[in-house]
Amino acid sequence: MTEMKRYVLRMFISLKHITANVVDRNNGRIVATASTVEHALKDAFQCGRTCNSKAAAAVGEVLAMRLKTEGLHQGLGRGVHVDVHKQIQKRGFNNTAKVWAIVNAIKNSGVKLVLDHHGDDHNTP
Q: Cα(123)–Cα(111) distance, rounded to whole angstroms?
């Protein structure tokens, strides 16, 4: 049986900026977002030519805080889904540390994050 993945974490990583969004797949809307483009994060990290894992972790923490504010930190009981391997493949292996920094910061902030395996419908505990 396939599990409904209503809320999905999406990441966008460039040389200068990191953005993480949680998307509601029922209507395609972004329910929470955080980015190094925002003044508070931009001023705190001074990314310059590149953003590092520390900035990525801060993006994850801010996103988790916003999910909690919206009452979505449990993903309506189903959690927020992310396929880490797919995100790493899309973002390039140079960004592996940044992807994991975002994921770990969100998870450590108390958001129910469901790690989907590469290409199948099984979840890790």
A: 16
